[in-house]
Every structure is written in structure tokens, then in C-alpha cells.
């Protein structure tokens, strides 16, 4: 399948930082995408155009880089935004889900009143690696009765198996570009 014109444009502007946050990890840094006004506009427009005709109630963004893209996309789609935070960062009643990372484990939380049963959610993060973060966030939303219509990310790291795992759980996934190998 041929990649859309924008995929390589976005991919070329992602910085790779070797051995961060630990040796052997090739960190895909999206900050150059955000720093350039034209690239940031193209990136946001990719998501806005994809979802503008879908019936959605909220965009949920995963802590922390998913907040950046998710909040802007929510604003552009005239939707509310739900922050999916790391444990201990939300001030009200929460539900939590623990998950495994490629280099450890973590817990994410949302407020118990973040949305209501039947709400249709677009779930956004910057990157899909092992899929743990995205699946944990989707489980949280499901636990309070919401429906994750699609998950979305800028980058897919298919060799780590996360995108496959998300799709095997029956959750649609859209990514802008991918990085295979080093």
C-alpha cells in the first residue's frame, strides 16, 4: 500500500535520539514537528481532515505528548479534551490502569467523570511502541462506558508489536508514519 504524500514529509522531521532514556532505545522525538509552524500545521491537518466528518464526542490525549496533539485536534474539531495522565497527577476521583512499557511499567488514570457511557472517543498519543499505554488508556475509557472509535498516533514502531496488539484487540489504529529498524 502506498503511503500518503504527507507521511514521508512528517517522518523526515522526526529526530532520532539514540540511547535515550536508556541504552539501546532509539527515541523518536517529535519536538521538531512542533517547532516548525508549517510542519505542525500539516500534522494537525492530517488528523483534523481524517476525523472532521466522524461523530465524536471527545478527543482523549495520553500524557504528555498526546496532550499537545490531542488538545489542538479537539479544538479544531470543536470537541472537548480528556487528559489521560500518569498516576497521581489528577486532583479528583480517578480510575487507573497499570501497563508494561518496553523498559518498565507504569500506570495511567482518568477522572471518573471524564466522559459518560456511550460517548465516542478519539484516543491520541505521539507514538505506538509496545501498545501498552494506548491499550491501558482505551481500557480506562471502556471502564467508564465510553467507546474508543479509533486510536491514533504520529509514529508507529511496528517491530515492537504495539500496533498489531492494538488491532488484535479490535481497536482501529491510525498512524501517520512508521520507523522500522534503527
From TrEMBL:
It is an enzyme of class 2 (transferase). One of its GO terms (molecular function) is adenine phosphoribosyltransferase activity. The keyword Glycosyltransferase applies. Transmembrane segments: none annotated. This is Adenine phosphoribosyltransferase. Pfam families: Pribosyltran. Pathway: Purine metabolism; AMP biosynthesis via salvage pathway; AMP from adenine: step 1/1. It comes from the Bacteria. Keywords: Cytoplasm, Glycosyltransferase, Purine salvage, Transferase. Its EC number is 2.4.2.7. It comes from Formivibrio citricus. It catalyses: AMP + diphosphate = 5-phospho-alpha-D-ribose 1-diphosphate + adenine. One of its GO terms (biological process) is AMP salvage. CDD domains: PRTases_typeI (cd06223). Catalyzes a salvage reaction resulting in the formation of AMP, that is energically less costly than de novo synthesis.
